[in-house]
Amino acid sequence: MKFKIDTREKFHAITINEPALAANMTAELDECLIGIQQNVVKNVVLVMKDIKSMDNAAASYLVKVQQRFYEKDASFVICGLCPEVERFLDEGEFLGLMNTAPTESEAADIVYMEEIERELLRE
User: Fold this and answer.
1) Segment 29-42, tens digit of pLDDT
2) Among 21, 63, 67, 98, which is disulfide-ready with 54 (CB 3.0 to 4.6 Å)?
3) Which CATH number is correct for 3-122, 3.60.9.10, 3.30.750.24, 3.40.50.720, 3.30.420.40?
4) Model confidence over 47-59: pLDDT tens digits?
């Protein structure tokens, strides 16, 4: 799987450079995500603008990964979904379980807001 990682102040933006996301492609991404969770900056914005299709197992994987991040007090936001993938996720009842944003900028805003929320809850 081809993907690019850009590290920002509060999150890592991971852009998947593939036209499809299938379950057999998620192992490499998972290794990367596990490594990120060990960093000081452990929030992730997953940019999926190039993904035109995915299978149910990959969608289920993304839901599980998001839950794993939230259990570790980290954010996991998916952005840039094309209309076909968004429709697929909605029909499969995955979309309502995912934290999504239309753009990377809006996903970053979600990460910043969740960081503030976690800080307030710690006080």
Assistant:
1) 899 998 998 888 99
2) 21
3) 3.30.750.24
4) 999 999 999 999 9
